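agent> call fold_tool(seq_1)
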Amino acid sequence: MTKKILLIEDNNDWRNIFKSKLAENGHSVLTAEDGQSGLKLAEKEKPDLLILDLMMPILDGKSFLNAIKKIKTLRNIPVIIVSNIADPEIKIGSEGVNDYLIKTNTSPEQLLKSVNRALEKT
């Protein structure tokens, strides 16, 4: 079954690499370049999973997480953080965060495994 994934990533290269891997494995992938456009797209499309960078323009990842907690239709969507910064305030299992991957240490295959694990729980 095809799942709808929203990938919110400001870096074009990372966005394309991750989108390609997920799409070639049967997922429908929507993308946004910043947290604000990602939030609007999430509200419109109601994805099955969110993949979120933390360091982004306009609305950063932590602010995005805070915003979706206040939106009834989005607050229970699983989130995978993929970022180059480790933020000790964000914990796996809290705020809907299913996994926290460090981008430079994560292959597209590892992201796909994390996505599949998170989607199995939905």
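agent> call fold_tool(seq_2)
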Amino acid sequence: MVLIDTSVWIDFFQASESSHAAALESLIRDNNRAMICGIILQEVLQGIRDNTSYTLTKDRLSRLPYLEIDKETYLYASSLYRILRVKGITVPPVDVTLAGLAVQRGIPLYTRDEHFKAIAKHSGLKLF
């Protein structure tokens, strides 16, 4: 199983010829190994402008394995954010929450965002 970040979903829906889109399609076809959580679901869907695409995408994403974010994840993410900040690394709180979720669940995160490399360097985050 792999948690798929918004950046990869955007690439998948907009640039279907990319290597990221191909890798994601492979994960989906390989026993639906692509996972999603609420933050990513919201980020992807809120960026869609037309109703037809919104409905189709919502239906497709709703079929994926779904991870709930619980209080322990938020507590872990706040600690991780503080550790990174002390080291001079500032990343969006949402991304620290996603990283925390992946670490706590022991699953890799597939992303195109470079700052996740800094998070992985200072935590147990595994990148796909």
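agent> summarizing second result for user.
The longest strand covers residues 34-37. Residues 71-121 form one domain.
agent> awaiting next instruction.
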